[in-house]
Amino acid sequence: MDSSAESKNGKKDAKKKASAIETFILLMRGFGLVFRSSPFLTPLIMIIGVVLALEPIANLWIMKLIVDRLTGMAFGGGLVWAKLLLRSMDFVAIIGLLGIQFAIWVATRGFRSFEDYLSSKAQQNFELHVKTLIMRKCADLDLAFFEDPKNLDHLEKASRGSSMSAWNLLWMLFHMVSSFLTMITFLGVLFMLSWVAPVVVIITTAPQMIASAKTARERWHIYSEEMSDTRLRYYLSWLMADKDAAKEVKLFALSDFFIQRYRDFAKKYYQVELAATKRSAITNFWLGALSNLGTVGLWIYILVKAFLGVITTGDAVMYFGATESSRYHLVNLFSSGGRLVEHILFLSDLFELLDRKPETVDGALTGLAGPGEPRWGRVKAPLKLEQGIEFRDVCFSYPGTDRVALDHVSFLLPIGQSTAIVGKNGAGKTTIVKLLVRLYDPTSGEILIDGRNIKEYDIYT
Q1: How do 444-449 and 388-397 pair as beta strands?
Q2: Which of 216, 236, 297, 363 is disulfide-compatible with 399, CB 3.0–4.6 A?
Q3: Hey, CA dihedral for 176, 181, 184, 190, is it positive or negative?
Q4: Distance between CA atoms of residues 445 and 434, nearest Å
Q5: Cα 97 from Cα 72, distance rounded (Å)
């Protein structure tokens, strides 16, 4: 292999490693959000999940004992009176086992009902916590952020993606722990049969984990790349249902145009999503067939053991159930892991938004001494002006455009006089007001209020 090929492979490995590390960090931050939103409920729900994880293996063990008792009743030999006594004892034992099974079912139903209630409460706490974080970040960001379409796309992804992922992340966090523990118990049962059995189940099922992770990342990329069109689609839908917009829509006969535009955006997104779903379905079919092949192989091995008398009929039933259940929980765990990665990737947009510093936005407010300094001073704004307002050689261009909105504008607004600002559309009237209330800062020049630069005043007083 030449050096260039080795270099490319090295870069690919580095990217994969970086991607895995980033996903793990996002996962930890996502879990951190969950725990901070419900510090008491989260561990309680997880404890209930641990208890519920033991129910399947308990059911399977009771089934094994019942089958062994029934087998003994059917094939027991000896004298008639002894056989009848033994059958009676087996019958009483089976009734006792059924009583234990009933108690387990009732307790499990109670735990699940309690878990559902706690999960709903935790979901509400999480959504409230996340929405509050987004609202606070929006309050900190300057107007320049909201006038950039790319920033709006980012905000839409962070807000909509986090809402969509909130409950799913919670549900997966709690139930993946339970599913993992259940899977471990079933694999432990298979280990009693042979150390090869759990290895076969894992090897034949593991490829589905890779496929699930790949599918999750592909869906996130589709969602991210189509966000601009998605935002327009929601906007068009809103226009058709908004009472204020309805007047203009009807006046200018825009209904057909908006509906067609909506359909075009929707079809484009659905085609991309359907193609991804098709690829995922084909992959899951073949990988599922591989997993089923491993299960059939183990069942044949169990049948041979039972035929040779190495294990009882109850043991065979237990191993049959453990094989299928461990495969099911393994697939479920891997699939949940893939979906968890998908929702964590959606939350990455949220974390990116929350981590963004207001001063990094193009056109954000800057301090008197320039970038990196406090963005406003501590002087309290006067309740009553004594000198007036002065624009001194002010120039301004909106972020993302080279068009000059104000070009070396200078004027004085003295106190005690009424001043009117007139001009045609686009002359800069609204821009002057935006600068005056400090929604933006001048590109050059300065604005003085009672002789002080506007940046010296506390913006919130």
Answers
A1: antiparallel
A2: 363
A3: negative
A4: 15
A5: 15
Q: Is 307 exposed, middle or buried (0-12, 13-18, 19+ CB in 10 A)?
A: exposed
Judge contact between 40 and 175, C-beta under 8 A.
no
State yes or no: pLDDT of 414 exceeds 50: yes
For residues 58-76, average pLDDT: 80
Longest dimension (CA), the chain: 121
pTM > 0.70: yes or no: no
Q: What is the pLDDT of residue 395?
A: 93
CATH code reported for the domain at 388-456: 3.40.50.300
DSSP code per residue over 226-269: THHHHHHHHHHHHHHH-HHHHHHHHHTT-HHHHHHHHHHHHHHH
DSSP H or E segment with residue 52: helix 41-53
Q: What is the per-residue pLDDT for 109?
A: 92
Compute the mean pLDDT over every residue in the chain, rounded to the nearest whole number: 80
- Token digits for 3? 């050096």
Start and end residues for every CATH 3.40.50.300 domain found in the chain: 388-456
Q: Which residues pair with 413 in a beta bridge?
A: 389
Looking at residue 432, its pLDDT comes to 92
Between CA 441 and CA 395 the distance in angstroms is 10
The total of other beta-carbon atoms located within 10 Å of residue 251's CB is 8
Give me the pLDDT at residue 5, please. Answer: 47
Residue 212, number of CB atoms within 10 A of its CB: 25
End-to-end CA distance of the chain: 68
Q: What dotted CATH number matches 3-224+281-360?
A: 1.20.1560.10
3-state DSSP call for residue 6? Answer: helix
Query: Which residue's entry shows tokens 């004298």?
Result: 79
Nearest alpha-carbon partner for 122 in 75, 194, 170: 170
Question: Is the CB of residue 394 less than 8 Å from the CB of residue 408?
Answer: yes
Structural tokens at position 118: 């706690």
The per-residue pLDDT for 74 is 59
Residues 6+ apart with CB under 8 A from 236: 258, 261, 262, 265
Maximum mean pLDDT: which of 71-75, 265-269, 305-309, 437-441 = 437-441
Average pLDDT over residues 290-305: 83
Q: Which residues contact 262 (CB under 8 A, 6 or more apart)?
A: 233, 236, 237, 240
Tokens of 441: 């800062």
Residue 148 has pLDDT above 90, yes or no: no
pLDDT for 75: 56
* Alpha carbons 255 and 431: distance in angstroms, whole number: 33
Return the residue matching tokens 């919670």: 170
How far is the C-alpha of 250 from the C-alpha of 387, rounded, in Å? Answer: 51
